[in-house]
Amino acid sequence: MDVYEAVASRRAVRGFADEPVPRETLERVLSAAARAPSGSNLQPWHAYVVTGAPLAEIKKRAGERIAANDPWDEPEYEQYPPALKSPYRERRSAFGAERYGALGIAREDWEARQRAAAANWDCFGAPAALFCYVDRDLGRPQWSDVGMYLQTVMLLLRAEGLHSCPQMAWAKFHKTVAEVLSPPDDLVLFCGMSIGFEDTTVPHTRTGRAPLDETVTFVDGP
Ligand SMILES: Cc1cc2nc3c(=O)[nH]c(=O)nc-3n(C[C@H](O)[C@H](O)[C@H](O)COP(=O)(O)O)c2cc1C
Predict the structure, then answer these.
(1) 137-155 per-position pLDDT tens digit
(2) Helices (H), ranges, the chain
(3) Ligand 1 centroid – CA 166 distance (Å)
(4) Which atom of ligand 1 is least distant from the CA of 98?
(5) pLDDT tens digits, residue range 31-50?
(6) 150 lies in a domain?
(7) CA of 190, closest atom in ligand 1
């Protein structure tokens, strides 16, 4: 698979088959992803790759919290500005319409949306997950490095026939994840990532993108 194909075929998959992901495949992907760039080669990512009983335990504990209407954990970072300005606000609305429209959920059906969102904490059925932490002393450039690392992982997963879904949703239950993984105190959970083979029976739509001239400015010389 070439890079264009990997980029084009990667999407946030929200329905995974039971089929396990071989440990060797995950090791191959994570070893290759370590070549991701980072400022001064800090390599600020801390990835926990979780399968089997520990992942089942994380899902179970998260599920119990949802069933008990337990409030989310105190956030360790702000996921979005409280008042999202244009054009981001409109893009978020368009995404919500695409995501929930594909599931046949009406815009005003808050409960159905919440039920669909709860699948995040079952990793959409995925048999493997990556929980990505960053040191709380590091700043925005290093968080950006972590993003590049995660995209590298997701593209390499495509080369292995695997799919993924990055999930900030897991940061809302960071204490539950920490109970099972016991990361050092100086790490903040940026996001989880569900990993597995796609369950092709789950409906989805392809998300759109802004036209190139909204996000890219070419400044050409003579
Ligand atoms: C950092 C990050 C966090 C995300 N968190 C979630 C999440 O918690 N749950 C979810 O279903 N999708 C999540 N997504 C997926 C985005 O919704 C998705 O990437 C976006 O809508 C574009 O769609 P596509 O990835 O299918 O092209 C996240 C994506 C990123 C990059």
Answers:
(1) 999 999 999 999 999 999 9
(2) 3-9, 23-33, 52-67, 88-102, 110-118, 140-159, 174-181, 212-215
(3) 6
(4) 21
(5) 999 999 999 999 999 999 99
(6) yes
(7) 1
